[in-house]
Design a protein that fits this description.
It is built from 11 helices and 5 strands; from the N terminus they run βββαβαβααααααααα. The protein is an alpha/beta fold and 274 residues long. It is elongated and about 90 Å long.
């Protein structure tokens, strides 16, 4: 619930949000304007909220500046009706401007009902989106590291990637594990290669592909890359678990309904909800 003025006076506020500070303009129903600058530390934003409450502000508009608006929104959302505005939607005409003038302009647009707020999802959906974006980033980083591992093998003239097309294949991963542990003998490495691959290309060809020029530094770098990849995989599992917990707590029925669509599993349904 946002704060309601018992006298039904419509006092509004415009916030011009920056990385290090916030410019504030309170536009009161009686024509009075209160303008000031405040910091962005939590205690300063708490003080801003108290000041807005003390001045009977009911509605606040702010521009969607990078991620800087998010902590301000979290602190103010329970006490006021908030509007998040695309800066291009309320762009001023060219001329002499200042940050405090920008805050005043935002307040003026809000009072004249020229502002249409952007959609801001509730807390649960925001958390789901955070996990979803983190999973996207992890997938991207994982592909990058897998390519680095393949490049490291090519540098050592280990050419098994020419015969195992998928770098996520079990055989490929087990060979990387052995190399990271310093086991470089082709006779040891070929044990990890699937028989189907050996039958297709021939044992001699696979042995030749596994015979490289590997030194201790190569093994150590492979071990580091492998540990990075393992860490990312653990983080992805953790994100998926948290994603599922939030969905099951708040959107269980919707998750089950979405999965009735052919081709959509649990993870896909969670991403759709997010």
């Amino acid at each position: 619930m946002f704060y309601l003025n018992p006298k039904s006076m419509r006092n509004v506020c415009g916030l011009d949000v920056h990385k290090d500070n916030v410019f504030v303009c309170i536009d009161k129903e009686n024509g009075e304007k209160i303008q000031f600058k405040t910091g962005i530390l939590t205690k300063e934003l708490d003080a801003l909220r108290d000041t807005l409450v003390a001045n009977d502000v009911t509605e606040i508009a702010m521009e969607s500046t990078s991620v800087y608006w998010m902590p301000i929104w979290r602190i103010l959302e329970n006490d006021f009706k908030l509007y998040l505005v695309n800066p291009y939607a309320i762009k001023q005409l060219p001329g002499r401007k200042s940050d405090i003038k920008d805050a005043e302009w935002i307040a003026t647009c809000l009072r004249k009902e020229l502002i249409r707020g952007s959609y801001v999802p509730n807390s649960e959906i925001q958390q789901l989106r955070q996990y979803n974006r983190r999973i996207f980033d992890i997938n991207k980083q994982s592909v990058y590291i897998q390519n680095k591992i393949d490049a490291a093998l090519q540098r050592c003239n280990i050419r098994i990637g020419n015969y195992i097309s998928n770098v996520r294949a079990k055989s490929y991963c087990e060979i990387v594990d052995m190399l990271s542990e310093g086991k470089t003998s082709p006779e040891l490495l070929i044990v990890k290669v699937h028989k189907r691959t050996i039958n297709k290309w021939g044992r001699d060809t696979i042995l030749a592909a596994l015979e490289g020029v590997v030194n201790k530094t190569d093994c150590r770098i492979l071990k580091q890359l492998k540990e990075e990849l393992d860490m990312l995989r653990r983080h992805k599992v953790e994100c998926l678990v948290m994603l599922r917990d939030i969905c099951m707590e708040n959107y269980k029925e919707q998750i089950l309904d979405i999965q009735t669509i052919p081709g959509i599993g649990e993870q896909g349904a969670m991403q759709i909800i997010a």
